[in-house]
Amino acid sequence: MKVGDRHYRSLWSEGPGGPVHIIDQTGLPHVFATRALDSPEAVAEAIVTMRVRGAPLIGVAAAFGVALAISREASDAALDRAVRALAATRPTAVNLAWALARMRRRLAPLSPGERAPAAWAEAQAIADEDAALNEAIGRHGVELLAREHAARGRPVNVLTHCNAGWLATVDWGTALAPVFLAHDRGIPVHVWVDETRPRSQGLLTAWELAGHGVPHTLVADNAGGHLMQHGRVDLVIVGADRVTRRGDVANKIGTYLKALAAQANAVPFYAAVPTPTIDWAVDDALAGIPIEERSGDEVRLVRGLDGDGRPATVAVAPPATPVANPAFDVTPAALVSGILTERGLFAAREESLRALRPVARDAAVAP
Which helix (H) or strand (E) is 181 found in, with range? Predict the structure, then answer.
């Protein structure tokens, strides 16, 4: 995608040995800056602090983190240390474990002397595949928007939650890929953008949509149900950090409430994900998906610009205020109208999703 007149991916490498470059998402939407990561520790820090975020992008970043580690030391012990350290950064997004397992499978059989070039090639392959998968999601999803427009004869109103655009992936995005393509094809579309507190990832969505020229409106998280009641939302499209084989969707906290409101108002609710986001090992979503509990200061503090346009942090609650800050929730498959993937739209049911299951060696997620 483009920032100004330049095309960017959210993450890119200069080649074997690094460094790996990222768009530092902690400055957005006010400050656009890139950052060079030259070690696996720097990659781990970027994931933990959400300089990079979004399930697909976390997985790609971790793959490059392994490549950086192997460039420094190519022993079995170094590979094991890198994989375990990166796996511990964020627990909910299954793409992280998937990418690390893929890197381990590729590198473990090789001699130490063969590992560094293979690691960089494999990490780059994962990055390129992610961009291709997301573009394919967009091609399938744009047909949903085209049908809605044809049926209604007016701009299609889409509601999103969190950020599932190109910043959350290597390129294109998941939930926003159909929106970008619809806009490019002349299909009129308008996006209701949830703020998505406490991290306000909706501001990233609004920044992306503004850069692409897509009409949009930022709304408070709690406005979604009201908009649906009044017929102002035609469909909801979200991304996901993990989808179970039964079609349950783990996504940014607040997604479950949007799905409940959508069902109550007969609004279709879709999750757009590349197939590596499907976790074939989880049977019980509520028991089997770890929900990350993040710092209470994310709720107590709000970051933005002060009256002079300088970055500032404001306390909205006293430091001693007790806070619970679960980062994700689980939307049961019964509330999901469909899972939109690079291979098309599938019902949120195990018997339907089974067609997407990879061969056994590619299905493993444990690092």
Answer: helix 177-184
Burial classification of residue 141, based on how many CB atoms lie within 10 Å of its CB (0-12 exposed, 13-18 middle, 19 or more buried): buried
d(CA 134, CA 117): 26
Measuring CA to CA, how many Å separate 176 from each of 169, 324, 329, 351? Answer: 11, 29, 20, 27
Kindly report the number of other CB atoms within 10 A of residue 329's CB atom.
Answer: 18
Contact by Cβ (8 Å): 262, 334: no
Task: Find, among 190, 185, 179, the residue nearest to 156 by Cα.
Answer: 190
The pLDDT value recorded for residue 1 is 84
Q: Hey, what are 225's tokens?
A: 């149900």
- The neighbouring-strand residues paired with 3 are 6
Based on the number of CB atoms within 10 Å of its own CB, is 361 exposed (0-12), middle (13-18) or buried (19 or more)?
exposed
The two structure tokens encoding residue 2: 């483009």
**Main-chain phi, psi angles of 249, to 5 degrees:** -120, 120
Query: 359 pLDDT band (50/70/90 cuts)?
Result: low
The residues spanned by each domain of the chain are 2-129, 135-358
Of the residues 241, 248, 279, 329, only one is catalytic, namely 241
- Architecture of the domain delimited by 135-358: 3-Layer(aba) Sandwich (3.40)
Give catalytic status of residue 241 as yes or no.
yes
| Architecture of the domain spanning 2-129 | Up-down Bundle (1.20)
Q: Token pair of 97, please?
A: 């474990």
Residues 6+ apart with CB under 8 A from 181: 138, 139, 141, 142
The pTM assigned to this predicted structure is 0.93
pLDDT tens digit string along 113-162?
999 999 999 999 999 999 999 999 999 999 999 999 999 999 999 999 99
| E strand or H helix at 216 | strand 216-219
